[in-house]
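Supplementary Methods. Inverse-folding protocol.

Structures were first reduced to a C-alpha cell string of length 426. This string, shown here, constituted the complete conditioning input.
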C-alpha cells in the first residue's frame, strides 16, 4: 500500500487552470468517433477513464492523434456505427462514462462482444441499462454476477421503438440510450420509471448531442423522444470545459481556509450540473464570484446546511468533507446513488469522517454529520475511489496529521491532483 502524508496547511491562495471534464471528454470522444471527418477536441482530460475510452475506440478502428498532455486531440471519425473488430472483448476498467455508452453502441452494431471492467466495475450494477436494451431487441447475458459486468452483447437487432428505463440509480443508463438511439433507423421513445436522478448530467448529454448535430426532446426529464435515422456531424473544433466536480475541491479549500482561489476553465455558462455546488457553499457561508470563464471563491464563517443534493452527487461528497469545518449539523439528502458508485460511498464517507472525529449517521439515502470539536489525525482509506482521496485532502486544512492511503486512485480523473492542490496551499 502506498501512502501520502499531507503537509498541514496554514492558508490557501492562488489560481489554477482546470483539466477538462471527464463526462464531457468521454462523450466528446465517442461522438467525434461516430461523426464523419476530423474533429479537434481541445482540453481533453488525460486520465484512466478517458484512456479506457480511447483504447476502446482504437480497438473499433478509430484514429486518434493527440499531443503529450492531450490538450489537443484530432479524431478521424467513422461516419456512423463501427464495424465489429477482430478483438471482440472490451475492457473498460472502472470507467462508468465509457462502459455504459459503449454497451449501447455495441448493442446497435452487428457482432458478438464481451464488455468487462475491473474488480470494482464488476460490483457496479448495469441491469437497468441491460433491461432497456433487451426491450429494444438486444441479446445480452451476464457472464459473472447477476446485474453486473462482464456482459456478452449480441448486437445488430435494435431498430428503435418504445422503451422504459428506471431512473433512480444513475443517469448514465439513460445517457447511454440517448447517445445511441439517434443512430437507429426508427424513432424511439424512452419513458423513465420513477424519479430520474442526476438530471443535470442528462442536460449535459443533450447539449453535446446538439453540438454534434443530433437532437432529442424531453418532457420534465421523464419522457424522451429521439428521432431515428440521424447522424452525428463534426463541429470542427470542440472545447471541453473544465471539470466542475474536480473544481469543487479547490472552491472548498478557499471556503474552509479563508483565502481566495480563482479557477479558470469553468464559469457561469457551464453546461455541467456540478456548477450548482457553488450554490451549496454560498449557503454554507462562502463568498462566490462567477465570471463567464472563471470562478473565484473566498472563505467565510461556515455553517452546516440541510440540502437535497441528488442533482450533484459527486460534489455532494465535497460538502460532506466541508461539514468537518462548519458550525452545526450538516444533512445531505436524497443521495442513495452514493451506494452504487465506484464504491459504496455512503459507507466509505461515514467510516472516514468518523476517523476524523465527526459524529455520523448514515441512512438509506442521507447522511447526517456533526463536526468534531477538533479534527483528529487519521489515515484515510480510499476504497479504490478517486473522489474519496480528493475530498479528504481537505482535512489537511486543520491541525491534524492526514495520510491518504493509495493516493494514486486520483489517476481515474485527475492524475496530478495532489500537485495542483499543493500549489494553492501554503
Amino acid at each position: 500500500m502506498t501512502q501520502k502524508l499531507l503537509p498541514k496547511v496554514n492558508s490557501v491562495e492562488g489560481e489554477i487552470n482546470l483539466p477538462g471534464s471527464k463526462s464531457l471528454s468521454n462523450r466528446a470522444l465517442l461522438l467525434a468517433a461516430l461523426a464523419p471527418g476530423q474533429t479537434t477536441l481541445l482540453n481533453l482530460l488525460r486520465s484512466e477513464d478517458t484512456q479506457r475510452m480511447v483504447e476502446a475506440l482504437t480497438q473499433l478502428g478509430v484514429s486518434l492523434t493527440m499531443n503529450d498532455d492531450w490538450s489537443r486531440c484530432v479524431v478521424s471519425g467513422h461516419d456512423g456505427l463501427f464495424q465489429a473488430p477482430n478483438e471482440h472483448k472490451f475492457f473498460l476498467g472502472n470507467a462508468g462514462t465509457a462502459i455504459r455508452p459503449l454497451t449501447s453502441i455495441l448493442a446497435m452494431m452487428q457482432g458478438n462482444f464481451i464488455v468487462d471492467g475491473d474488480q470494482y466495475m464488476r460490483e457496479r450494477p448495469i441491469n437497468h441499462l441491460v433491461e432497456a436494451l433487451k426491450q429494444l431487441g438486444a441479446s445480452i447475458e451476464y457472464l459473472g454476477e447477476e446485474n453486473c459486468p462482464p456482459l456478452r452483447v449480441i448486437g445488430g437487432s435494435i431498430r428503435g421503438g418504445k422503451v422504459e428505463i428506471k431512473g433512480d440509480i444513475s443517469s448514465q443508463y439513460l445517457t447511454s440510450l440517448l447517445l445511441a438511439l439517434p443512430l437507429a433507423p426508427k424513432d424511439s421513445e424512452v419513458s423513465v420509471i420513477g424519479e430520474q436522478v442526476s438530471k443535470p448530467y442528462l442536460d449535459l448529454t443533450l447539449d453535446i448531442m446538439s453540438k454534434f448535430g443530433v437532437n432529442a426532446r424531453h418532457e420534465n426529464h421523464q419522457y424522451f423522444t429521439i428521432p431515428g435515422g440521424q447522424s452525428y456531424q463534426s463541429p470542427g473544433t470542440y472545447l471541453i470545459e473544465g471539470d466542475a466536480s474536480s473544481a469543487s475541491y479547490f472552491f472548498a479549500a478557499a471556503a474552509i481556509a479563508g483565502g481566495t482561489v480563482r479557477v479558470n476553465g469553468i464559469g457561469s455558462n457551464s453546461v455541467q450540473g456540478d456548477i450548482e455546488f457553488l450554490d451549496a457553499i454560498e449557503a454554507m457561508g462562502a463568498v462566490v464570484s462567477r465570471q463567464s470563464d472563471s470562478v473565484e471563491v473566498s472563505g467565510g464563517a461556515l455553517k452546516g446546511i440541510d440540502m437535497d443534493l441528488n442533482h450533484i452527487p459527486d460534489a455532494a461528497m465535497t460538502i460532506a468533507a466541508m461539514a468537518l469545518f462548519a458550525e452545526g449539523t450538516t444533512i445531505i439528502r436524497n443521495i442513495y446513488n452514493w451506494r452504487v458508485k465506484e464504491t459504496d460511498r455512503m459507507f466509505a464517507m461515514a467510516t472516514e469522517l468518523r476517523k476524523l472525529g465527526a459524529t455520523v449517521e448514515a441512512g438509506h439515502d442521507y447522511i447526517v454529520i456533526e463536526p468534531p470539536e477538533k479534527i483528529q489525525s487519521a489515515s484515510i482509506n480510499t476504497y479504490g475511489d478517486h473522489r474519496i482521496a480528493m475530498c479528504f485532502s481537505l482535512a489537511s486544512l486543520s491541525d491534524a496529521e492526514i495520510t491518504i492511503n493509495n493516493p494514486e486512485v486520483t489517476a481515474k480523473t485527475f492524475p496530478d491532483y495532489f500537485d495542483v492542490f499543493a500549489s494553492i496551499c501554503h
